[in-house]
């Protein structure tokens, strides 16, 4: 027999896709954004670490030039693996849990009131933070690694 639209939408693979979609799209968008922003994040961490030391403060441009000169261009991407892991865990969880909880709280497909959105957001963010914290710690340690004495 032919597959009608209703038998397709009732199929198990389609239902699994609909559940997984917010997780996959949230994680993928977070990972793409991280890949683009990683050099700026790396520089931010180095500026913060430089300012922790009691040395004379340098500008972000000076720190970036020093980093490129001493460690090379790829140093700007130190910690990328941990940053991508963080997005794969934190953002994927946060976006997916938000969608699942929001859908579960909806009545008759009406938009959620602000107070329900706030509860769903806080819950999803909290669960995402617990899941993403280990990779976030690894990210900061990998980015700070070049500042450690040999």
Characterise the protein shown here.
- By secondary structure, this protein is mainly alpha-helical.
- 77% of the residues lie in helices and 0% in strands.
- The protein has helices spanning 5-9, 12-52, 60-71, 80-105, 114-144.
- Helix 2 packs across helix 4 and helix 4 runs antiparallel to helix 5 (114-144).
- The protein is elongated.
- The model has no long low-confidence stretch (mean pLDDT 85).
Task: List the topology elements.
Layout: H1 5-9, H2 12-52, H3 60-71, H4 80-105, H5 114-144
Helix pairs in contact: 2-4, 4-5
The level of helicity is over 70%
The H/E string reads HHHHH
* Low-pLDDT stretches: none
Give the biggest sheet.
Answer: none
The count of helical stretches stands at 5
Radius of gyration: 21 Å
Give the overall shape, derived from the CA principal axes.
elongated
Please describe the structure with a list of short key phrases separated by commas or semicolons:
150 residues, 5 helices, elongated
Short synopsis of the structure:
This protein has helices spanning 5-9, 12-52, 60-71, 80-105, 114-144. Helices cover 77% and strands 0% of the residues.
């Amino acid at each position: 027999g032919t597959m009608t639209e209703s038998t397709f939408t009732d199929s198990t693979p389609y239902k699994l896709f609909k559940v997984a979609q917010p997780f996959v799209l949230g994680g993928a968008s977070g990972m793409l954004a991280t890949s683009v922003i990683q050099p700026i994040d790396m520089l931010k961490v180095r500026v913060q670490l430089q300012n922790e030391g009691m040395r004379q403060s340098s500008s972000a441009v000076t720190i970036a030039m020093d980093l490129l000169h001493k460690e090379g261009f790829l140093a700007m991407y130190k910690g990328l693996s941990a940053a991508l892991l963080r997005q794969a865990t934190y953002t994927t969880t946060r976006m997916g849990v938000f969608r699942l909880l929001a859908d579960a709280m909806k009545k008759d497909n009406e938009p959620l009131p602000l107070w329900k959105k706030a509860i769903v957001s806080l819950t999803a963010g909290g669960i995402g933070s617990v899941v993403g914290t280990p990779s976030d710690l690894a990210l900061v340690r990998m980015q700070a690694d070049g500042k450690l004495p040999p």
